Amino acid sequence: MLIKYYIILIIKKMFSKLIITNYYSVSERALQFISNLTAVFPFSKYVTEEGQRVVGGVLIGTGLWIAVTFVMRNVLKYLLSWHGWMFNRHGQTKYGVVVRAPAVSLKKLQRLSQPAALESLSRHFDATHDSHVASAPSQVSDWWEEYIYLRGRGPIMVNSNYYAMDFLYVIPTTRQAARAGNSIHAIMMYRRKLDRAQIKPLYLLEKRVPLCSAQWERMFNTSRIPGLETDVLQHMNESKHIAVYYKGHFYKVWMFYDGRLLLPREIEQQIERILADKSEPQPGEELLAALTAGDRVPWAKARSQFFSRGKNKQSLDAVEKAAFFVSLDDTEQRYDPENPVQSLDSYGKSLLHGKCHDRWFDKSFNLIVFKNGTMGLNAEHSWADAPVVGHLWEHVLSSDPVRLGYTEDGHCKGNPHPNLPGPQRLQWDIPEECQAVISSSLKVAKALADDVDMHIIPFNNFGKGLIKKCKTSPDGFIQIALQLAHFRDKGKFCLTYEASMTRLFREGRTETVRTCTTQTCDFVRAMMNDKATREEKLKLLKVAAEKHQDLYRLAMTGDGIDRHLFCLYLVSKYLGEDSAFLKEVLSEPWRLSTSQTPLQQLDLFDLKRHPEFVTSGGGFGPVADDGYGVSYIILGEDLINFHISSKHSSPETDSHRFGSNIRKAMLDILDLFQLDNKANNK
């Protein structure tokens, strides 16, 4: 694979020579070419010999520039499409890819490949469908967004939206307005960097292989608009205000004054004005956001009937076209060392659904700031996946206590503005007929929220440090532990979903890793067999972990199967060809849905020096009525946070029971290696 390295060096050398070549030497070499051209395309008699030299230089230079650009583009495309480096085992030298960051353009990322059968059907579909679909960089992502997210007619609260939590152990300030001031300012600074293309792309392989950044485009100024058959994503190019909700009131708060972004203390000043508002909500205003928490069709009909004109339209526009939504929660949430289980579970549920009427679930994300200064996010899922929101959240958490900071009495640094206009209270005229729809949506949402069984585990017995000593990938270790825990919990195996990103490809999103493999099942059975020896279990564990890693790599590099099956199903429906196989495969429930939220900007968090600034990660609701949703984040060397969700209504599930099984499974697997570790003492 060193040949690829030399190819890129040769091309770069050719390119540099072209740049520094003397203009006259280029034109001299072009004279003979120009002379030949004059026989076919004679120059005007008014063109001097010097002019002919110029034309020759331009023609030759332009031609060579195009040729070199074409060659470099295709060489880079070829290099980026080679994923062999990902399949190297730990300790092997990674040869074959040397791509310098300044030369890489995301437009050169490969389109997600398709198997031959799907490719043939796709060509027929493209030929008979509209040109947008035919020329889309990623049909998989387009269809995934529409059919998995936007066409869903059930509530997006709990079923689709997900959450992110604050620091686990500390709250930088207990002043709600101050925490909101710093956080809002940090988010707006992130948006400024995004608008100026100053957000550094993420890379793999020691910053040589780029990941697609397309999902960042709709992070701000975006709202999901309900429709009768399908929703749409409305994205504004610019928005200079945010929408704020507090105790039944909606406000429009401008983020700019006198031609500049408001400073943290000035934003705190605006939030203090909102918190001081003791007026009563207008009829129907307090519960209005419940429309975004219930079924989509009633919300679509109500929006068309009651919010398409007058003051209601103006106020709704202020919410939907805001940069993002802020909810000032009047409850207190935080991790309580004296009551860790109940406090974290309550905190997670509040971020996931709140009171069902105090979050605008259609916005790209909601910043939620609680009365005691704790905060979190609730994000809509259709526009992007969790790592994208996680990247923003890492920036906010690192900026808040360190770069921005607070005064000794807990306020944002700086001074209030004496002439700053106050927030604008949004006006509504909601008739009783609409209020009835709101009440109906709230009833649906409340039933869904009350059914959520949430449990969060800060697993600090050990972390990736000891797992690596076992010569096992941390993700594989955890996934196998989840299979063991699930078997102990239910006495059977189930179809298991793990999300893997496909952002090695242009506009890639996710692929499924089916982690309940034959190899993993063999290991779990051995763990349940008292007659199996430790050596036998370790051997099976190694095989299962390697199989998991291979499946994960295949998913990342476009060789997963689920998105291809999904596209085959859509094409078959379009062609009117029913497939019993596809119907059966795609209708099987994922009774264990899992996802790892990676910490992406490690340079922002020095957990060795400041372990108190560890975050809690985030989570999501259960995917199946009788299943579990599990999100986990690996933090530092000694902490793994698990977020477990299920439904109280299912007699087969219990999030706390499953959490206990996860803890036991993690410890039992580690015990196979007989390492001296602190886990044995806890």
Automatic annotation (TrEMBL):
Record membrane topology? Multi-pass membrane protein
Q: Active-site positions, per UniProt? A: H381 (proton acceptor)
Supply the alphabetized keyword list: Acyltransferase, Fatty acid metabolism, Lipid metabolism, Membrane, Mitochondrion, Transferase, Transmembrane, Transmembrane helix, Transport
The pathway is: Lipid metabolism; fatty acid beta-oxidation
Q: What is its EC number?
A: 2.3.1.21
Return one Gene Ontology term, BP aspect: carnitine metabolic process
Task: Work out whether the entry's keyword set contains Phosphoprotein.
Answer: no
Give TM regions: 54-76
What this protein catalyses is: (R)-carnitine + hexadecanoyl-CoA = O-hexadecanoyl-(R)-carnitine + CoA
> Which molecular-function annotation in GO is an example for this chain?
carnitine O-palmitoyltransferase activity
Query: Locate the Choline/carnitine acyltransferase domain: which residues?
Result: 137-663
The record's section on Pfam families has:
Carn_acyltransf
What Gene Ontology terms describe where this protein resides (cellular component)?
A: mitochondrial outer membrane
Query: Where mainly found?
Result: mitochondrion
- Alphabetical list of Gene3D superfamilies matching this protein: Chloramphenicol acetyltransferase-like domain, Choline/Carnitine o-acyltransferase, domain 2
PROSITE patterns on file: ACYLTRANSF_C_2
Q: What subcellular locations does the record give?
A: Mitochondrion outer membrane
Describe the family membership recorded for this protein in Swiss-Prot or TrEMBL.
Belongs to the carnitine/choline acetyltransferase family.
What is this protein's name? Answer: carnitine O-palmitoyltransferase
Q: Which organism is it from?
A: Sinocyclocheilus grahami (Dianchi golden-line fish)
Q: What is the lineage of its organism?
A: Eukaryota, Metazoa, Chordata, Craniata, Vertebrata
